[in-house]
Model the fold of this input.
Amino acid sequence: MDKFNVEDWLGDRGLLDDNFYKDSAMSKIRRHKVRGDWLFIQSDSGWGDVEVEAYYLNTIHGECYDAWPSKGFSWSAANLAKKVERLER
Done:
């Protein structure tokens, strides 16, 4: 999934609405990865907070299921697999 697909997915769920987008955590997507049915996005809220958020892809709803500070976050396949395992419990 490239950045344009990520933006389309979020936009289709109302997370990139012009008014919402300005104040949302999606205001600047820095990095993203898909692991299984989960989308991990590193974003900058514009308030100085940079986090990694997890979204479940197989739904019509755009809901952040969990978030972690981006500082020190490992994007390794093993770490993302552990995150997915915890999310799916």
Notes: The longest helix spans residues 77-87. The first strand starts at residue 29 and ends at 35. The radius of gyration is 12 Å. The mean pLDDT is 84.
